[in-house]
Amino acid sequence: MKVKNVKVMWIKILLVEDNPADADLLAELLEVSVGVQWELVSVEFLHEAIAQLCKQPFDVVLLDLSLPDSRGLETLTRLREVAPDTAMVVMTGLDDEAIALESVRLGAQDYIVKGQITTQLLVRTIRYAIERSQTFQMLRESERRFRAIFDSSFQLTKLLTPEGIVLEVNETALDFAGLRSEDIVGRPIWEIAIWAQSLQVSEQLQSATGKASQGEFFRSELDLLGKSGQIVTVDFSLKPVKNETGQVLLLIAEARDISDRKRAEAEILKALAREKELSELRAKFVTMVSHEFRTPLTTIQFSAGLLQDYSSQWPQDKKSTHFVRIQLAIKRMTELLEDILVIGKIEANTLHFQPVSLNLEKFCRQLIEEQQLNDSNQHQIAFQHEGGNCDAQMDEKLLQQMLGNVLSNALKYSPAASTVSLHLKCQNKEAVFQVQDRGIGIPQADIERILETFYRATNVGTISGTGLGLAIVKRAVELHGGQLAIDSQEGRGTTFTITLPLICEPRQ
User: Fold this and answer.
1) Model confidence over 297-351: pLDDT tens digits?
2) What 8-state DSSP symbol labels residue 7?
3) Which helix (H) or strand (E) holds 228?
4) What does the DSSP 8-state code read for residue 262?
């Protein structure tokens, strides 16, 4: 009889329990579990737990709230201050379920009741706590990336409810006004101190907010009070963000100081031309983000809500399904934010080119493997390599984005279960990458503009996309000193041919 190979999971646990009998019982339950290897460190005091967490990382902490040197929820609070990213499971008595629920609200991933613990329950609880902790870490990272983009904007930007209550304000706006976030967030925009010098402006803002909440775009030149007490003229706008049914979800308030522009007519004309371009980009950006973020955010909200309400009643496989959905949604949002960051660097001309040594054949095979894992329509990717040695000096990250975007587009716009081919040819000190599909193709009228930021072909229909990928491909090819050719026929497929020198010199 063949013995199946069991994939063993290794988990490092810190047990904080001052009752030796309870500690021994938990250790015994863990010893008889199958498919998991445990490294258990047991301590009896809070200060010992803190010392252990400062000395080494743990996957999960099993925590008794009543210790000789600490009692109640303070025990959890102090441990989370030391290790905020470590999964924590609180252990309570039969009559302490209210405290257990409060501990989850304060940041614990789960709780178990002493006297009701089984091996299966304990293992499931530990795994769930670790997965939930990892998911929250990914959510925090995604939020950090959004905050970085939001705060780096040169516009004075606020996010409002449809009623005009400020939800978020970026650092640019706070610095400009000399105010703190708590002076602004949670208040109607027309009651903020910077507008207090004029009742007329305050009333105008209140009226504009009412119209914007009904879907109207508002823009005007308004006077506000700067942090030095001077009156500053700003170009102010209120833009509604709508869902697919036309309902206004939130308002984006933006302002830009135009005092100097008003004093110089020549600068006004120049700035207006640039503002028109930026306004178009902002409109496309808002439309793209609101559309592309909506689906993963809805997935996260739906699955998280179900997990919160029903996880205690569900089997592990059903909970795991929703965790996977949340993780995939987060991955999609992270990829979108990465594209936005790259486009921002392209627009700012700060995208650096840093070549490293790599083997292109190995690189292509790894890329294909990643694309296949993310492909839900079961396409085949046929890879062919010809020519001599494919050792190269290229920017690995840019090459990943370049070929990754072209390959993912080929998969996205091709019929399910069809074949997409990647051909690599290395000769004459050049590498030629050719990606071919039999998808919907690109209309000839769109070929000249398909590499522009935010531009999408007119025949994509309901297929989701941002219009950023090919703009990134174009700039990545340029930084490598290469060439990009597109051959496409609508309804018959597309071929992208990228030619790059094998040895690329460092450049900006």
Assistant:
1) 888 888 888 888 888 888 888 888 888 888 878 877 887 788 778 877 777 777 7
2) P
3) none
4) H
